[in-house]
C-alpha cells in the first residue's frame, strides 16, 4: 500500500475531488437499490426453503441446519456450491448498504478522469474485487463449518458444548468492538485514497476494500455464523450494525455501543446454555 493510501486510511479523511454529476450518482444508487431488493428477496426465499427442510435436534438443546450436510441425496460438492451461492446472495444483501457509500466515494475520486461508460466499468471492477474477497471468505467458512458439523453429529459431548462456545464467541466479538484495532479498521473502510482511473487500480482497490471490510466485520460475522446463519432476525440485526457503524459520523462510538449489546447478548446466551444443560 502506498504512503498516501496509508495516510488516508489512518486518518479516515476523504481526499477532495470533483464530484460525479448527481444524475449519474442517482442512477448508480438506483441500480444498487434494485440489486439490494433482489438479493433480499432471494435470501428470504432460500431461508424459507431451508426452513421447510427442517433442522436436526442436537444434544444441548439446539438444532443444526441442514445447510451444512448432504441431505436428499446431495453430494458434498453440491452442498458446497449451494452454500457458497447462498453466501454470495446473503452477503450482497448484508454488505451492500455499507458498500454503496464507499463506491460513491470511489466514483467521486476518479469521476473527473473517466467518462460515464468507463466509470461504470471501473465501478464494476471495484465491486468484483470486493465480491471475490467475500466469496473466498464463504468458501473458507464452509471448509471449516462442514467438518465441524460432522464432528458435532458424531460426538454428543462436542454438540453439548456448542451453546457455551456460541456465548464465548459472541462475548469475544463484543469485546473486539471496543478495541483500537476495530476503530482503525473502521477508518480504513471510510477512507478514499488517490487512485488512478484504470482497470488494474480499480481491481486492486476492490480487493483492498474487501479485505478491509472482512477485517472490520470479523466480529459481527462471527456472531452471525455462531448464532444463526439463516436466522433472518440475526441477519437483519448484523446488517444494521455493520451499516450504522460505517456511515454514522462517529462510527467508533457506535461500534462500542454495538459491542456492549453483544456482551449483554452473550450473557443471555450463557444463561440459556446453563438452563438447557
UniProtKB/TrEMBL annotation:
The lineage of its organism: Bacteria, Pseudomonadati, Pseudomonadota, Betaproteobacteria, Burkholderiales. InterPro entries: PpoB2-like. Signal peptide: none annotated. This is Metal-binding protein. Coiled coil: none annotated. The chain crosses the membrane at residues 28-56, 76-99, 119-145, 157-176, 254-274. It comes from Paraburkholderia monticola. Keywords: Membrane, Transmembrane, Transmembrane helix. It comes from the Bacteria.
